[in-house]
What we know:
- Helix content is 64%, strand content 0%.
- α2 runs antiparallel to α3 and α3 (30-54) runs antiparallel to α4.
- It has 4 helices and no strands.
Amino acid sequence: MVAISWLGFSPQSIIITALIILLILVIGLQWEALVALIAALLSIGLNVLVKDLIQRPRPAAALVHVPCHAHRISVFPSGHVMFYTGFYGFIIFLA
């Protein structure tokens, strides 16, 4: 799960997204590349909006096993899951 989740976090998610969009452009799908970019940006924007509206605190480290400490607020869905669904879900649909 750590390896799968890693793909959804910055900076690797930005790099992978840029490479995928460039690949879509290279194969001649300009409209699809634009929509993929919009899907990536909307998933990030929607995640920020939901986190700001909900502002659910993270569970205490004593209650759960925490591999790394995050300082930001927590909300479901998590940022990397939202990005996976918004961008990679579009790419799978495109294929």
